[in-house]
Amino acid sequence: MTLTNTTAPRRIRRLAERQTTDRDALFALLDEELVGHLAAVVDGVPVVVPMGYARDGEHLLVHGSTGGGFALRAAAEGATVAFSVTALDGLVFARSLFDSSMNYRSAVVYGVLEPVDDERADAALLALSERLMPGRSAEVRAITRREAAATRVLRLALDDVVMKTRAAGASEDTDDGEDHSTWAGVVPRERRWGTPVPSPLTPEGTPTPVSVVALMTRSRSEHRLP
Asked: What's a Pfam family this protein contains (predicted)?
C-alpha cells in the first residue's frame, strides 16, 4: 500500500532511496508522535505553528480557537497547507563530522484543512484528548457548551504524503581510509515521561490519577532494560 491514495506520489530528489511508501510505517510514526508543525502562507507570509494532533483513520485531527488563528483562515480560504511530523531515533557517530548523521523518520502531509461538522465535533475532540492523555476525559468534568463553541476541530486527509527515513549505522568500509580505532556507531534516542509534579493547588496526598499512572507505567515498560 502506498502513502498516497488519490494523487501521484511525490518524489524525494536528494537521497531518494530513503523515501518509503509503506503505509504502516506512516501510521506508526503518526501514532507514536504527539506534536507536528502546520505550515501555510497567510497574507503572503509563511507561517509555521507546532500543535498537538491525532490520527483518525485516514485523517489527521487538529484543533484551534474559533476566535481566530491561521489554521481556520487557511481552511476557510481552501488554501493548501503542509503538516510535518518527525521522530529523531538516534545520532550516528561516523569517523568524520561530514559522514555523521541522524536516524529519523519524517513525513509531510499536504492538503486542504476541512472543518469537522458539529455532529462529529465532540467525538473528534475526544479522539484528540485520548491520543494525548488516554483516559483523562473520564477523570475530569465534561466540556461546557461555551468551551465547545470556542473550539473548532479540523481534519487533514492522508492522501498526499511523502515520508523519508534513515535507520542505519555509520557509513564505513574496510578500505575507506579512515582510522578504525576511532569509535563509530549509533546512539539511540530514548524518550520517557518523568515523575508527575502536582499543581500548587492540588491538596497534599491527592492520589495520582489512573490516567497518569497508566502513562508512567507504559513509558517505563517500553524503556525497560533487558
From this structure: Pyridox_ox_2
